[in-house]
Design brief:
The structure holds two protein chains of two kinds.
Chain A: H1 6-14, H2 20-38, E1 41-43, H3 46-62, E2 72-76, H4 103-110, E3 114-119, H5 153-160, E4 166-170, H6 177-182, E5 186-189, E6 210-214, H7 217-227, H8 246-249, E7 259-263, H9 273-288, E8 292-296, H10 304-319, H11 338-349, H12 352-365, H13 370-394, E9 397-401, H14 417-421, H15 428-433, E10 437-445, E11 448-455, H16 461-474
Parallel strand pairs in A: 2-3, 2-4, 7-8, 7-9
Antiparallel strand pairs in A: 1-3, 4-6, 5-6, 5-10, 9-11, 10-11
Chain B: H1 5-11, H2 18-35, H3 70-74, E1 80-81, E2 84-85
Classes of the chains: A alpha/beta, B mainly alpha.
């Protein structure tokens, strides 16, 4: 059962074949057995999980089940939850207990979900490998000497190893899609503004978006349907955003008439040739399903990483100024004065990568450099967004590799921050443009998973859910989970 | 580019040890060196955007919706007294 999809668990619950408590116990057993090796969860309270499952079973006994009734969902440590700690895998928030639930957490509770623990992540979501976590590295269930991707690496590893059937992640520059890709699962970043950011610890406010990490495309649609919608308390949450029936889109079995754009800038010399071969084979399969593959260009793609590493750190340097040791978070011992308290608390509390990003952002925003870096990056952002608008005049969706490489070795890129930044080369442009994207499994290179990335125009999650579902139905990749723990 | 990392750190209100400054300084120069490729992009007449969507941010009705949760909100603070946050003395 652990490797069941959310949809399968829902069917069995609805048929009365199993209870939410039985499901919760089976995943708690796996967490107890395997989490020490993976470190996918940084906090887990089994009795609280069972209480929620019992409450769900009780609710079901006297009500129509809600959309996610009794289904366990693991939560990235970036989401504020009133129950248990919310630490963003940072020492500056060690033992922090949020006084309120994030909007998406409220929505999941209202949908009847059972929230499971807090998953490991790069500190403040800054990283591509979950190696910057203050609470220890996380391992990839396909090969425990390798990274699970990041920053939502704990969520990806938890789902891939069936320690949970699904998880929530956040994606600022690829932090859902890239770990989903290297852990062989499905992950979706919705359109910016689709999901409320309230109660999600802010990294880069104009880029951050929460989304599902699941075994299948339909499971991703189920969670997205539950968490999306306008929140009056988040000014960037968009009211009356168009919604097409996402679950119905997931019934798609062919791609007749679908125009798929293949951007030349995403098939570069430096990429792994095995990854390229997997993507080419996937696109050939799409063609066989009736799609038309159209060569396109997104000409400003090469500037996306540079624009991102100005914009994201600039926003981060502003957002993380709130960690001032006054209202919450770590305070140093015996500060001499206010300045000493600020500077020493922040030095002690933030890890090196977070400091690097704050310094980069502070520099880019500082007097004399603001126009050359920050304004320039925002102009390039306009051009990147326009590239997509132009491309979607010719095609319905765009397909690319999610990552140029499969999971790399732990420690391989930690000495060179810039090389690590380039891990996100294929995922970043989508965040800058605010568009929806999905990564789904599409093959293996040397027994490591490869991810296929789909992109769509704003608010057209239905198009990529449909295309990804048709591809999933026509292939067996999701039926080949990580054989972690020797049981499938 | 030669960046005074200690100055940038002070603007960021982060005290760096000498070892940290020695490590982070060259890395910061590398990162800034990388993003300087933005200068090669022709952005003449291009409007900067701070947000992906061309929509005005909606305004809420101006009514009080929050309740007094001072104790809960101050519970995570390092130090409070009588409902106030306590910090080192700032006025002589």
């Amino acid at each position: 059962m652990p490797f069941s999809t959310l949809s399968e668990l829902k069917t069995r619950l609805d048929a009365g074949e199993i209870t939410a408590v039985e499901i919760a116990k089976s995943y708690l057993d796996r967490i107890a057995e395997f989490n020490n090796e993976l470190n996918a969860f940084v906090d887990i309270d089994p009795s609280h999980v069972l209480e929620q499952a019992q409450a769900s079973d009780a609710y079901r006994a006297s009500h129509e089940p809600r959309p996610l009734e009794g289904l366990p969902i693991a939560i990235k440590d970036i989401f504020c939850t009133q129950d248990g700690p919310t630490q963003c895998c940072s020492n500056i928030l060690k033992d922090y207990h949020a006084p309120y639930d994030a909007h998406v957490i409220t929505r999941l509770k209202e949908a009847g979900a059972v929230l499971v623990g807090k998953t490991n992540m790069d500190e403040f979501a800054m990283g591509s490998s979950t190696e910057t976590s203050a609470f220890g590295i996380c391992r990839n269930p396909w090969d425990t000497d390798r990274i699970p991707g990041g920053s939502s690496g704990g969520s990806a590893a938890a789902v891939a190893a069936a320690l949970a059937p699904a998880a929530l992640g956040t994606d600022t520059g690829g932090s859902i899609r890239q770990p989903a890709s290297v852990c062989g699962i499905t992950g979706m970043k919705p359109t910016y503004g689709r999901v409320s950011r309230r109660g999600i610890i802010a990294f880069a406010s104009s880029l951050d978006q929460a989304g599902p990490m699941t075994r299948t495309v339909k499971d991703a649609a189920m969670i997205t349907a539950a968490i999306s919608g306008h929140d009056a308390l988040d000014s960037t949450s968009v009211p009356n955003a168009p919604v097409v029936d996402w679950l119905a889109a997931c019934d798609q079995t062919d791609m007749k008439g679908l125009r798929i754009g293949k951007p030349k800038e995403y098939f570069i010399d430096g990429m792994d040739q095995g990854v390229r071969a997997s993507i080419d084979a996937a696109l050939a399969r799409c063609e066989a399903l009736g799609a038309e593959i159209i060569d396109i260009s997104l000409p400003h793609t090469n500037a996306a990483v540079a624009a991102y590493y100005v914009i994201a750190p600039s926003e981060a340097s502003a957002n993380l100024s709130r960690y001032d040791a006054v209202r919450f978070g770590h305070r140093c011992e015996n500060p001499d004065d206010l300045l000493d308290m600020y500077t020493r608390s922040r030095d002690e509390g933030f890890g090196t990568e977070v400091k690097r990003r704050i310094l980069t952002g502070t520099f880019a925003l500082s007097s004399g450099y603001y126009d050359a870096y920050y304004i320039k990056a925002q102009q390039v952002r306009t051009l990147i967004r326009q590239d997509f608008i132009d491309a979607f005049e010719q095609v319905d969706v765009i397909a690319t590799p999610t990552s140029p490489v499969t999971a790399f070795k732990l420690g391989e890129k930690t000495d060179d921050p810039l090389t690590m930044y380039l891990s996100d080369i294929f995922t970043i442009a989508l965040n800058l443009a605010g568009l929806p994207g999905i990564s789904q499994p599409c093959g293996f290179v040397d027994s490591l998973p490869v991810g296929l990335q789909w992109m769509a125009p704003a608010w057209r999650e239905d198009l990529i859910l449909g295309a990804a579902s048709a591809y999933e139905n026509a292939t067996d990749w999701v039926k080949s989970p990580a054989k972690f723990g020797g049981e499938v | 580019m030669d960046i005074d990392v200690k100055k940038v750190a002070m603007l960021s209100r982060i005290r760096l040890t000498d070892e940290e400054a020695a490590e982070l300084g060259p890395q910061l120069s590398n990162i800034i060196g990388y993003v300087e490729q933005l200068a090669e992009v022709d952005t003449n007449g291009v409007e900067p955007i701070a947000h992906p969507h061309d929509i005005a941010m909606p305004q809420r009705t101006d009514i009080v919706t929050n309740v007094n949760r001072r104790d809960a909100l101050q519970a995570p603070a390092p130090k409070t007294e009588s409902g106030l946050y306590v910090v080192p003395k700032v006025i002589e």
